[in-house]
């Protein structure tokens, strides 16, 4: 498997896990503060896409041969 394909597959898996965690957090917030539930969900939803990328890169560099960063 090429490093680029592995990176994209890992990114999708990490994003799905983080999105589920964000959903759970927003449900807890909604049960306590109903007016903030949707805003919390939207912020976490968009933020998890941003957060998942460096996590996926780090995982790929650690476990996929030939995927070391050039920087």
Q: Gap between N and C termini, in Å?
A: 22 Å
Helices and strands: which structural class?
Answer: mainly alpha
**What is the β-strand count?**
0
Whole-number count of domains:
1
Shape descriptor reads rod-shaped
Q: Low-confidence spans: pLDDT under 50, at least 5 residues? A: none
Keywords:
mainly alpha, 71 residues, 80% helix, 2 helices
Secondary-structure topology with pairs:
Layout: H1 3-32, H2 37-63
Task: Write structural notes for this entry.
The protein is mainly α and 71 residues long. It has one domain. The protein has 2 helices and no strands. The mean pLDDT is 91.
Write a concise synopsis of the structure shown.
Helices cover 80% and strands 0% of the residues.
